[in-house]
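Sequence only, no structure available. Ideas?
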Amino acid sequence: MKILLIEDIEILANLFAEMIRFYKPEAQIDVALTGKEALEKLKKEKYDVVFLDIILPDISGLEILDFINTNCPDTKVIIITAVTDNNIIKKINEYHYDEILFKPVSRDTFFSVLEKYIA
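Reply:
I predicted one. Tokens follow.
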């Protein structure tokens, strides 16, 4: 199983990656700390699951979500975001995604999502 974790806060990216490794040790996990890096990886590799932060330093996670919807329709997308702005949430809902988690995410919630999509 190939997983792409897109999160600009490195400590959170490492934490989420470690939780995924704990749950599924054999998973191949790539981490992208910027939107540009994420798009480069998505153009080169096929991922089973993408964990996507919406607020990134260089490009919007919505742009990445659009790319995934258009070019990787079989990829499961789990959005992990701190967004509370209703206008942005409405924009997110214009796209296909499989799950949305709002930060802070509890360990139990994260593991239940892992169980659902990575089992």
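The longest helix spans residues 10-23.
Hope that gets you unstuck.
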